[in-house]
From TrEMBL:
PANTHER family reported in the protein's UniProt record: ASPARTATE-SEMIALDEHYDE DEHYDROGENASE, DEHYDROGENASE, PUTATIVE-RELATED
Oligomer and partners: Homodimer.
Binding residues annotated for NADP(+), in chain numbering: 13-16, 41-42, 161-162, 329
This protein's name: Aspartate-semialdehyde dehydrogenase
UniProt xrefs under HAMAP family: ASADH
Organism taxonomic ancestry: Bacteria, Bacillati, Actinomycetota, Actinomycetes, Kitasatosporales
Length: 359
């Protein structure tokens, strides 16, 4: 390849697609053409990327003509159908949906943790992990590289935007219903005030926490909990890692938080853990409780790194650490990681053609 690779953003009009266009406008520009793709409903709409208006085209086989890399920010079933179509035309697909994450022939990539896996893609597809896993895995990957992870116990405090636009609209509507009232003092009073307006959540999320995210899986586990376990194992290359997860929805618009109990192969020290986290790419250590300093979603939202605070050694286990982690679920948790993977592929394609050109 002589010029810059051409990129297609499929699902450019959606929640993740919108953040993607902002991110593509902010990062180093490694792309030639950027083509925007969505449903026929959106065809003809003009969206701005890199400061230029680009007309959206409808998804079709021809939409991939001349394209080198395609990001898919669309529902699972759309990726399941169309990613193989693009891949068959020689396009490298980076898929943000859940359609291919656990496919053994599809690498699941976090560029700070397992960038080498992006090169081995027998189906021409690379998958982007789910937002809850992504919100903690960069910090955990850095600690694992030094200490060797043996076990994870995680609780999430997930923002409503993880359930898409409908989640955000629901929280905002519920907040306006309870603002300025005495609700939250009697059993069921918030539920009665909110009525049917629970949106994608099983319970009111305003003035509440809801111990549920996703759909029901075997033995009472939620799909979100299974994703955190299965995807963490795959990304870290630890297929038998014991992982216990409880996913909880909280009244936060954007930015997932997690408490993490991580057990390692041998004794750990807080000083060494802090040194690792302080120097790990993509991680910010913000941990000074004496000064009231620890990450919270209200400060982390809109930023790129994984923020870590409350670093402690477990009181009863010298091989374990306790952490509090925050990450923006729409940036690193979705669009940013996809953009980073696509940039790895762009570098590879350009480098490869350089070798071919000189041969
Ligand atoms: N929200 C999150 O926090 C998050 C985090 C990580 C991953 N994800 C995943 O990212 C994907 C997109 O999520 P989202 O929240 O951005 O969804 P969304 O807001 O509903 O957007 C969906 C996008 O897909 C397009 N689309 C839908 N059906 C299509 C079809 N048949 N052909 C072509 N385009 C089609 C839509 O185009 P139109 O506008 O033309 O309808 C829109 O651009 C999902 O797989 C989701 O699970 C979401």
């Amino acid at each position: 390849m002589t010029g810059k690779p051409a990129l297609a953003v499929v699902g450019a009009t959606g929640a993740v697609g919108t953040v993607m266009l902002q991110i593509l406008s902010q990062r180093a520009d490694v792309w030639g053409e950027i083509r925007l793709v969505a449903t026929p409903r959106s065809a003809g709409r003009k969206l701005t990327v890199r400061g230029v208006e680009v007309e959206v085209v409808a998804l079709s086989e021809e939409a991939f003509d001349g394209i080198d890399v395609a990001m898919f920010d669309v529902p699972d079933e759309v990726s399941a159908r169309w990613a193989p179509v693009a891949a068959a035309k020689g396009v490298v697909v980076v898929d943000n949906s859940g359609a291919f994450r656990m496919d053994p022939e599809v690498p699941l990539v976090v560029p700070e943790v397992n960038p080498h896996c992006a090169r081995n893609r027998p189906r021409g597809i690379i998958a982007n992990p789910n937002c809850t896993t992504l919100s903690m895995i960069v910090a955990l990957g850095a600690l694992h590289a030094e200490f060797g992870l043996r076990e994870l116990v995680v609780s999430s405090y997930q923002a409503v935007s993880g359930a898409g636009r409908a989640g955000v609209d629901t929280l905002r509507a519920q907040l306006s219903m309870v603002a300025g009232t005495e609700l939250g003092t009697k059993p069921g009073d918030v539920r009665r005030a909110v009525g049917d307006l629970t949106g994608p959540f099983p319970e009111p999320v305003a003035l509440n926490v809801v111990p549920w995210a996703g759909s029901l899986r075997e033995d009472g586990w939620s799909s979100e909990e299974m994703k955190v376990r299965d995807e963490s194992r795959k990304i870290l290359g630890l297929p038998k890692l014991p992982v216990a997860v409880t996913c909880v929805r909280v009244p936060v618009v954007t930015t997932h938080s997690l408490t993490v109990h991580a057990r390692f192969q041998g004794e750990v020290t807080v000083d060494k853990a802090r040194e690792i986290l302080d120097t790990a790419p993509g991680v910010v250590l913000f941990d000074n409780p004496a000064a009231g300093e620890f990450p919270t979603p209200a400060d982390v939202v809109g930023t790129d790194p994984t923020w870590v605070g409350r670093v402690r050694r477990a009181l009863d286990d010298p091989t374990a650490l306790e952490l509090f982690v925050c990450g923006d679920n729409l940036r690193k948790g979705a669009a940013l990681n996809t953009a980073q993977i696509a940039e790895l592929v762009a570098a590879e394609l350009t480098g490869r053609s350089g070798v071919a050109d000189s041969a």
